[in-house]
Design goal:
single chain
Length: 144
Amino acid sequence: MADVSDPAIDAAYQDVRSDKTDTNWVLLDYESDRSDKLQVTGTGSGGLDELREALDDGKASFAYARVSYANDVESTREKFILVVWIGPQCKVMRKAKISVHVADVKQILRVHSIEVAAREKDDLNEKPIVLRLRKAGGASYDGI
């Protein structure tokens, strides 16, 4: 089991969800290579581009992000995504554990439209994620 008991995790999650702050992502990493305790290692307001830069190729991490996109000139939508990051140089044992730990993380990062499995930073490019969000959103009159 992953240890998600740190109150800072829920506080950061609530901060991303709040309309009163500019924070639009939070990154959770393990305390150490041998630990199963997660902690907040970054937050930001620069969207997926900034989140991508915060990811470490040698780590497995979880991230929660708010993604805003326009349906037309008159409306925008905000959806939330859960990112499961396994960097290309992540150790084998950590890779094995993360698939089990995602269930524990979902207990605290509860509300999200889609889950994004990212193995390289390009997996967090905004355009394909927005396309997936539109498809997951139900009725689409854009022909998507």
